[in-house]
Amino acid sequence: MSYLDFGALAKTPLTKQPFDYVIVPNFVKPEAFRKVVSDFPDVPGAGSHPPAELKIRGHFAELIKELHGDAFRKAVEEKFDIDLSGRPTMYTVRGFLRKKDGSIHTDSTTKIITVLLYLNEDWDFDGGRLRLLNNGTDLEDYVTEVPPVNGTLLVFRRSDNSWHGHKPYEGRRRAIQFNWVTEAKVVTKEQSRHRLSTRLKKIKSFFLPSAA
Ligand SMILES: O=C(O)CCC(=O)C(=O)O
Ligand SMILES: [Fe+2]
Which residue spans traverse the membrane (predicted)? Predict the structure, then answer.
């Protein structure tokens, strides 16, 4: 049985201003959400971790498999009127935010589509809610704010004005970022860049568990 609510994605219209995006609350179905969260991998601190450095298993692995499946690709292709066949994918896992996270950016030009999936049970904080912005300078000038909860899906088309960011938050915050990118060497380069910092964090958390 599918963990993802493709029907809800199909029903949600694409928003085109200030850039192309779609937000689907409960995209991870409520009955699957709890299972996926319970199998969320241990991550050695903040930042983006490549799956090769983590133990991806159980219901979390099933969810990841679905994100890589034809049904999800076709749904995104249809929504964004884009051909993603032959475009490589990559993903990273995040378990914590640092105070410095959330600064305004558009994502790198090698990303075509960015998918964010939020796996927190509740969120009573002002920080850590991703804002989709009208410009690259003012975090208060936003069109929408995404609470990082309950398997909420955000998909956007990267562009020169796909500005996004959030107010600072420090602590636990589970999310997956999944991308379709321009070419295979992007995947190798990005994943190896993250791999080094994940490995350093593993060493640090071994010696200083509370500092992770
Ligand atoms: O965690 C989020 O809500 C967004 C993160 C982000 O924009 C990024 O890592 O590129
Ligand atoms: Fe981003």
Answer: none
Whether residue 117 has its Cβ less than 6 Å from ligand 1: no
CATH code of the domain containing 23: 2.60.120.620
pLDDT digits (tens, 9 = 90+) for 100-119: 999 999 999 999 999 999 99
Ligand positioned closest to the Cα atom of 23:
1
Dmax (CA) for the chain in angstroms is: 49
- Classify residue 167: in a domain, yes or no: yes
For residue 28, give its domain range: 6-188
pLDDT tens per residue, range 83-98: 999 999 999 999 999 9
What order of strands is seen across the sheet that includes strand 164-165? 142-146, 130-133, 164-165
Indicate the top mutation candidate among 146, 177, 193 to test ligand 1's pocket, ranked by most ligand atoms within 8 A of CB: 177
- Which residues of the chain have a pLDDT value below 50? none
How many CB atoms lie under 10 A from the CB of residue 113? 23
Please report which helix (H) or strand (E) contains residue 201, including its range.
helix 184-207
Nearest protein CA to atom 3 of ligand 1, as residue: 130
The model carries a pTM of 0.96
208 falls within a domain: no
